[in-house]
Design a protein that fits this description.
single chain; EC 1.1.1.1; binds nicotinamide-8-iodo-adenine-dinucleotide; binds zinc ion; NAD(P)-bd_dom_sf; 18 strands; alcohol dehydrogenase (NAD+) activity
Length: 353
C-alpha cells in the first residue's frame, strides 16, 4: 500500500486575534518523534472552543490558534518513536488533552488532565478545526476501524467529560442525577450515559425543543429554567419523596445554576461542576453544606482509561449522538447559534468542506 498523500497546505479556521475567526489556507505540520498526524474528517464543536476564541478564561491561548478538540480521523503520518499500536490508516481521535508529561505524580496516578505540562488541543496547541492535526500518540483516542467518524466525534470531549463527571459524582444505579444544561452538547450525552449506567435523570434546560429532545434521550423529568417559578422546588418534586437528586452535573454556561444546585441536591449528595461560564463563582451556605453533608467538586475531562470506556459505551450502541453537520467553513455560524443558547445537541463540522 502506498503511503497517503499529504498536502503541504490545507484549510483551517484560525483565531488570529481574540474574538474572531478567519477561514484560510495554512501549512500542514509535520509530527514530532512521539506524535501522529491525523487527517481530521469530522470535528464536534464544543462550547469550550467558543470560550477559547472569546478569551473567556484566566488561562491564555496560543495565538494564532486553530481551535477544536473533538476531531475524528485517520492517522496519515507518525514519528519514529510511535509504537506499533498506532499505525498509518488507523482511526484516531484528537481530544482536549493533546499530551501530558507521563512522568509527574499526576500522570503516574492516571490523573493526566491535572499534569502541569498538559498540552490542550485547540487552546495551547492547534486543534481539529483544520484538515490535518497533530497529537501525542500516547494520548490519541484509539477508534476501532469501521466506526462512523461523524457520529463519534462529539464523544471525544462531550462524551468522555460527562462519563467522567458521572463517575466522580459517586452515584449508583437506580439513583437520581440532575443534568443542568441537558439540551446542549454535554447534556445530551450526559442523559444517555446516565441512562446506560442505570441512573434516573432530571433534565434542566430552557424551551420546548429542548424538553422534547431531553425526553427523547431518556430523561425522567424536565424542568424549564426559563419558565419555572421555583426551580429548586420543581427539581425536588421530580425525585422520589421530594428529597432531591443524589447528584447534580452542572453543564450550563451561566453562573446562576451553580448557586442553586446545593439547594436542591439531596442531603449527602454531590454537586459536580463541569461547565465553565466566564468569571463565575460558586457560593453555597456553609450551614446547609455542613448539616446536609453536601459535597461540591469539579470534574475535568477524563484520562486515557475514561476515554477508552466512554468510547466503548458508544461502540456498544448505547450512545446515539444527536448532531447536525455543516462544513468547516461555516464554523462562525455555529458559534453564533451557540452564543444564543439555540443549539439542541451538538454541531459537527466536516473538515473537508
Ligand atoms: O472538562 C470539563 N469540565 C469540560 C469539558 C467540556 C466542556 C467543560 N466544558 C464546558 C464548556 O466549556 C461549557 O462551559 O461545559 C460547558 C457546556 O459545554 P457544551 O455542552 O458544549 O455547551 P452548550 O452545547 O452550549 O450547552 C449549554 C446548555 O446550557 C443551557 C443552554 O440552554 C444549553 O443547552 N443553560 C444555560 I446557557 N443556562 C442554563 C440554566 N440556567 C442552562 N440550562 C439550565 N439552567
Ligand atoms: Zn470540549
Ligand atoms: Zn504529567
Amino acid at each position: 500500500m502506498s503511503p497517503p498523500q499529504i498536502p503541504s497546505e490545507q484549510w483551517a479556521q484560525v483565531v488570529e486575534k481574540t474574538g474572531s475567526l478567519v477561514y484560510k489556507r495554512i501549512p500542514v505540520q509535520k509530527p514530532g518523534p512521539d506524535e501522529v498526524l491525523i487527517n481530521v474528517k469530522y470535528s464536534g464543536v464544543c462550547h469550550t472552543d467558543l470560550h477559547a476564541m472569546m478569551g473567556d478564561w484566566p488561562l491564555a491561548t496560543k495565538l494564532p490558534l486553530v481551535g477544536g478538540h473533538e476531531g475524528a480521523g485517520v492517522v496519515v503520518a507518525k514519528g519514529e518513536l510511535v509504537s506499533d499500536d498506532l499505525n498509518i490508516g488507523d482511526y484516531a481521535g484528537i481530544k482536549w488533552l493533546n499530551g501530558s508529561c507521563l512522568a509527574c505524580s499526576f500522570c503516574r496516578q492516571s490523573d493526566e488532565p491535572l499534569c502541569g505540562k498538559a498540552l490542550l488541543s485547540g487552546y495551547t496547541v492547534d486543534g481539529s478545526f483544520q484538515e490535518y492535526a497533530i497529537a501525542k500518540a500516547a494520548h490519541v483516542a484509539r477508534i476501532p476501524k469501521g466506526t462512523n467518524l461523524e457520529e463519534i466525534a462529539p464523544v471525544l470531549c462531550a462524551g468522555i467529560t460527562v462519563y467522567k463527571g458521572l463517575k466522580e459524582s459517586g452515584v449508583r444505579p437506580g439513583q437520581w442525577v440532575a443534568i443542568v444544561g441537558a439540551g446542549g452538547g454535554l447534556g445530551s450525552m450526559a442523559l444517555q450515559y446516565a441512562k446506560a449506567m442505570g441512573l434516573r435523570t432530571v433534565a434542566i434546560d430552557g424551551g420546548d425543543d429542548k424538553a422534547a429532545h431531553c425526553k427523547s434521550l431518556g430523561a425522567s423529568a424536565y424542568v424549564d429554567f426559563l419558565t419555572s417559578k421555583d426551580i429548586v422546588a420543581d427539581v425536588k418534586a421530580a425525585t422520589p419523596e421530594g428529597e432531591g437528586p443524589h447528584a447534580v452535573l452542572l453543564l450550563a454556561v451561566s453562573e446562576k445554576p451553580f448557586q442553586q444546585a446545593t439547594e436542591y441536591v439531596r442531603a449527602r449528595g454531590a454537586v459536580v461542576c463541569i461547565g465553565l461560564p466566564a468569571n463565575a463563582f460558586l457560593k453555597a451556605p456553609v450551614f446547609d453544606t455542613v448539616i446536609r453533608m453536601i459535597q461540591i467538586k469539579g470534574s475535568y475531562v477524563g484520562n486515557r482509561q475514561d476515554t477508552a470506556e466512554a468510547l466503548d459505551f458508544y461502540a456498544r450502541g448505547l450512545i446515539k449522538v444527536p448532531f447536525k453537520t455543516v462544513g468547516l467553513s461555516e464554523l462562525s455560524n455555529v458559534y453564533g447559534l451557540m452564543k444564543e443558547g439555540k443549539i439542541v445537541g451538538r454541531y459537527v463540522v466536516d473538515c473537508s468542506r
